[in-house]
Write a structure and sequence with these properties.
mainly alpha
Length: about 130
């Protein structure tokens, strides 16, 4: 829980520090782009709440992998705002978590690491690609 709070704080600070300069490169987002992000976040909140309620007695592995599927799905909804790379990230995250659900012998730590590595790698590409679109 502490890691989640620290990560959220770090993301907020980065957005506060760099958000305006990045948005300046692209101009104001359309209302459709903004609402796609709002819908994605609302979807993620609802999915996590439902999954926790329905799967909390099925074990931590199943619950966490199901949540990772939901997080991957929420990336798909962000496509209008972030483009095709976020769709790739969403699909890869879903595939990774679904693989772990299908094959319980696969180490959860490996799946968790791969999930984080995918997010860091594609997030890094999106971050570094900002100048290409300017």
């Amino acid at each position: 829980m502490v890691l989640l709070a620290v990560s959220g704080l770090a993301a907020c600070l980065m957005l506060w520090q760099f958000g305006a300069s990045i948005a300046e490169l692209f101009g104001a987002p359309t209302s459709f782009q903004v609402w796609s992000l709002v819908a994605a976040i609302a979807f993620e909140i609802v999915v996590i709440a439902v999954l926790v309620r329905k799967l909390r007695n099925r074990g931590e592995r199943i619950l966490n992998l199901a949540i990772l599927v939901g997080v991957g799905a929420h990336f798909l909804l962000m496509a209008p705002a972030f483009g095709p790379l976020i769709v790739v990230l969403g699909l890869l995250a879903i595939i990774n978590a679904a693989y772990g659900l299908r094959f319980p012998g696969v180490s959860f730590r490996i799946l968790w690491f791969l999930d984080g590595a995918l997010k860091a790698a594609i997030g890094g590409v999106l971050w570094l690609a900002v100048p290409l679109w300017a």
